[in-house]
Amino acid sequence: MIQGHKRAKNKKNVLNICENFKGPLKLLHEFMQNKTQVKIYIRNNHGIRGYVTGYIEIFDKHWNVTLKDAEEFYRRRKFQYCESANFDESSVEDCSARLKKLGIELPEVNVKSINRKNVECRRKLPQILIRGEQIALITRNIEPP
Prior knowledge:
Helix content: 10-25%
Radius of gyration: 22 Å
Number of domains: 1
Shape: elongated
Low-confidence stretches: none
Distance between the termini: 65 Å
Order of helices and strands: HHEEEHEEE
CATH class: Mainly Beta
Number of strands: 6
Largest sheet: 6 strands, antiparallel
Strand content: 35-45%
Oligomer: single chain
Strand order of the largest sheet: 4-5-3-2-1-6
């Protein structure tokens, strides 16, 4: 029998590829290696929804990013802004007790009023996955943590 040589499998992944070229993925890889805190601006249908700060844990070629020790900031309209709206609070059920029974703990949301119509919400998350199509911009966070 004639022995052939085994062909080495081509191990291509984003982390091996981005070491060889310069560009945005290379910069993302440097942020991950150096454990640099980043600020990711999140988009919605009509513009920028808010931003998330944290440390990049992993990413892929579709710009899906996982952050750890993340803090999310976003703006939304105030509930019950219009006094003429008929809103019955008794019909809304608080399910926090049922979630705690199941062992699910939701992150606490801190709400701060900006003006008459809008509030800024802030929540701290241990880990978050952000889809690439929702990312508008990624920058190094220069604000103190």
